[in-house]
Amino acid sequence: MSEVMIRVKDLVKKYNMYDQPIDRLKETLSLTKKCYHKEFVALNGLTFDVEKGDAVGILGKNGSGKSTLLKMITGVLTPTSGQLEINGVISAILELGTGFNMEYTGVENIYLNGTMMGYTREQMSSRIQDIIDFADIGDFINQPVKIYSSGMFARLAFAVASNVDPDILIVDEALAVGDTRFQIKCIDKMKSLKEKGTTILFVSHATEQIKRFCNKAIWIKDGIIEAQGESSEIADLYEDFMKYGTLDNQTDVRLKNKNQKEEEVVVEEDDGEFKMPINEDTLASIHEVKISRDKIRTFEDLEVEITYDIYREKIDSFLVGAAIYTPSRDYIFGPNTYLEKVEIPNTFGRHKVIYRIPRIPLLGGTYTIDVGIFTDESIVNLDYKTAICEFVIANKYFSEGKFYIEHEWKVIE
Length: 413
Hints:
Strand order of the largest sheet: 5-6-7-3-8-9
CATH architecture of the largest domain: 3-Layer(aba) Sandwich
CATH class of the largest domain: Alpha Beta
Radius of gyration: 25 Å
Strand content: 25-35%
Number of strands: 17
Largest sheet: 6 strands, mixed
Number of domains: 2
Order of helices and strands: EHEEHEEHHHHEHEHEEHHEEEEEEEE
């Protein structure tokens, strides 16, 4: 029988909102008990269980209630009503700076966080070198954290939270401010903890990270649970909502993506030679993507030639993915070399692979291709090209829809 680490039942959190600060005092002193506030319900009746060893992704727009939920689970906030049961030691990374004394050095804050979690100074002393090594912020570890950048905060916070053997680890958007190498380091550490049975709550706006790392997901919308279940299914529902939920029609979606693509285009002179990047944090990049032809018919073959550069001696768990979309960003198909167990070059230098569809089953229409290079089962994105190629399928009329599905007809009588 599975052990429940977090049990949430009918959880509600309400706030009193005042138009002016003085209204709070007026309400407190009112002899007639006059109400000066409006009630805001941040969370309204959440119910779910998290079992031991689960990695649960928390999805939702900004303001949906994700951070409020995590603060109640960690004890920072008190529920207005409902039940909240926690079984085990929690280690959490919430907003940057939470749990830190700005005047203390990094080392002093390590001990401070350990004390707040119930560890003695001696217990933290046995862990401190591992924490310092993981944070990898050099001499800044002995400087007041008030001079830290957001990246340094994230490094130190994650190093402390993940190296104290927690039963439950909560990560709230901590990876968003880190560079690629830091993201890889954090994901590897979380994988290690998950394998040891640590329960993880992971908040991220990157749905691909939720799909690849988590086995379950919860989508919170306007303070209620919109959906919960298997991570990939819930992430797909959330992505569809984010694409189409506030747009009137497919034309608006197409226009939005076209504008976004134009904003992302950066023209650089490139003589085609392999060169090391100016940014030393860049581990790899997509150099070029070619398509065999841009006009084809159903059942003809299609090849996508992908050239990529690797700037490190070796990148473990390196993979290439290619995805087909409609112009309105309906996701058609997206395999990658990790899922299909295809070994590709992952060492220093320039490499080339070909993604081939021998008999494309798509029917008439325009389609685009995304190409990405990743590590860690597609959790960490090294480089991604959106709609880098476009092709059109045109046929004589022989069927309808988007796909041709093998089928047969039988006459019974």
